[in-house]
Amino acid sequence: MSQYRHGNAARDAHILTLRAIVAVLLLLTGGMWWGWKSAPEDLTVHNPPDLRSGSTRKWWEVPPSTVYAFTLYIWQHLNRWPANGEADYKRNLHAYSAYLTPGCQVFLDNDYKARQRRQELQGRVRGMYEIPGRGFRDDAVTIMDRDHWVVTLDLAIDEHYAGTPVRDVYVRYPIRVVRADVAPEHNPWGLQLDCFADTPQRLSVPRSGDGDGKADNAGSTEE
User: Fold this and answer.
1) What is the pLDDT of residues 67-85, one digit of tens each?
2) Nearest 5 degrees, angle CA 204-CA 135-CA 44?
3) CA 21, CA 128: separation in Å to the nearest integer?
4) Are 169 and 179 in contact (CB under 8 A)?
5) How far apart are the first and last CA of the chain?
6) How far is 106 from 92, CA to CA, in rounded Å?
7) Residue by residue, what is the 3-state secondary structure of 103-154?
8) In terms of CATH architecture, what is 64-216?
9) Tens digits of per-residue pLDDT, 163-209?
10) Cα–Cα dist 30/42, whole Å
11) Is 182 helix (H, G, I), strand (E, B) or coil?
């Protein structure tokens, strides 16, 4: 009899062990399911433009070249008035609002209203271009921390009114950029402009384009 009792006890202990293992496996399966369910469906990875030598990076790192390209692209398009600045500037502020921080949106809205009061927009055509030889470089992007940068854009501004050139200047724009992974369906870059980090400065650049050029610190700002 004792042999049978010991056999039954061993069997019951084995069954209890199997039940405990099943319970642990269920918990692990539930945890893995929750991790899979809560994982993001899309993951943006920023790669440098030249991949011939390969690239290894953490997925959350944004290369300075990407930050620069984003800033140049959005700032150029905000300031492109192909037909009439009064209509084009307002349309751009709405079209690119997802790429601007709320504070920058308010700043540029006020800039639009101020220009409108001064009658600087009606019939004005504007283009903004990268100065040849003054594109992306190591000192063009200052990394403040993982989520904040300051980008220096050296741009040429070309404005016309009724077909007559009214402005042709070079300006240096120091622009803040922040990480903003808030609406990837509207902003796939995951970045936003936070307007000026400092006062824009007029540049003195030789027309031949072979000089480095210097910032005019006499207090002139781009308006």
Assistant:
1) 999 999 999 999 999 999 9
2) 145
3) 67
4) no
5) 101
6) 14
7) HHHHHHHHHHHHHHHCCCCCCEEEEEEECCCCCCCHHHEEEEECCEEEEEEE
8) Roll (3.10)
9) 888 888 999 999 999 998 777 788 888 899 999 999 999 988 665 54
10) 22
11) coil
Give dist(CA 79, CA 175) in Å, integer.
14
* Rounded Cα–Cα distance for residues 93 and 121 (Å): 14
Q: What three-state secondary structure class fits 96?
A: coil
CA nearest 181: which of 196, 195, 192? 192
Whether the CB-CB separation of 68 and 140 falls below 8 Å is answered with: yes
Report how far residue 82's alpha carbon sits from residue 93's, in angstroms, rounded to the nearest whole number: 14
Q: What is the DSSP letter of 98?
A: G
Nearest Cα neighbor of 110 from 223, 2, 7 is: 223
Boundaries of every domain in the chain: 1-39, 64-216
- Give the integer Cα–Cα distance in Å for 110 and 108: 5
- Tokens representing 147 are 């989520």
Secondary structure of residue 22 in the 3-state scheme: helix
Helix or strand (DSSP H, E) at 167: strand 164-179
| Matching residue, tokens 């943006």 | 44
| Closest to 155 in 3D by CA, of 133, 134, 130 | 130
For tokens 């209203």, name the residue: 113
pTM: 0.70
Task: Find, among 112, 123, 73, 71, the residue nearest to 90 by Cα.
Answer: 112
